[in-house]
Amino acid sequence: MKTRPMLTLDDCRRISAAAEAEAKRNNWNVCIAILDDGGHLLHLARMDGASPANARIAVEKGRTAAESRRSSAVWEERIKAGRNSMLGMPGITPVQGGLPVIVEGICVGGVGVSGVQSHEDEQIAAAGIKVLG
Amino acid sequence: MKAQLRVAVACVSACLALAAGAQQPSPLDAVPEKMPNDIPYGTPISLERAQAAIAAAVGESKRRDWKLNVAVVDSGGRLVAFARMDGAQLGSIAISEHKARAAAMYRRETKAFETGVQAGNHYLLTLDDVIASRGGIPILDGGRLIGAIGCSGATGSQDEVVCRAGADAVKR
Question: Which of A60, B75, B96, B163 is the most buried (most CB within 10 A)?
Answer without folding.
Answer: B163
